[in-house]
Amino acid sequence: MQLATIVNQEKGLLGEDKTPTRDRYLITIPVKEEIYIDLQEMWEHLISDHNAEEATSLAMRLKLFNLAHWIRSHPEDYEFGIWTGQFRLDEWYGNKNVIYRRFRGAGPGPLTNIPRVCVQHSPGGHEWGYNGSGPSDFALDILNHFLPPRKNPIKCWAGQSSLEAWELHQKFKQEIIAKLDNDGGMLPALTISAWIKRNLPPAQAKTHN
Fold it and tell me: Distance (Å, rounded) from C-alpha 82 to C-alpha 64?
């Protein structure tokens, strides 16, 4: 049985036809930045599919001891992450500050600390620094982090969005996300809150106070 099938059966993410459901795109595995850097180093030495036990042994041989401990402690997360490529940074610097990093090397390059609440434009994940589908979903997830669905949510391709985030996300992408540094950085929560205050109609703002 393929690793992808094993992982999805464990997480209940296979439909009746044994294909992944859309909800699996909402799952991102949180990792510390230093662990992800070690993951990339280990992946440079992998040549075939493998499971968490094999990855732990390889990490030990490479003297990546913190990574070996993480894989041993989170085997299902590791296996789901390597199949989907869906990791996110487990980093928070202050209340709701958005962290985005572009890693060079094996594995997915762009990672953020924002969970995926809804997928509409880009099943492949978050992006920034230009106008496109990845930046659109990054904008949508950020705004849902600040303006979570309360009532009458908008159904997306996967997950759901608040009406307020949905109506503002393309403008937020164009004015903020598309202009972020390509290599990565931090988008302060105060900057996001100020932008929302300027652009959210007063009637909608009352529902999120």
Answer: 17
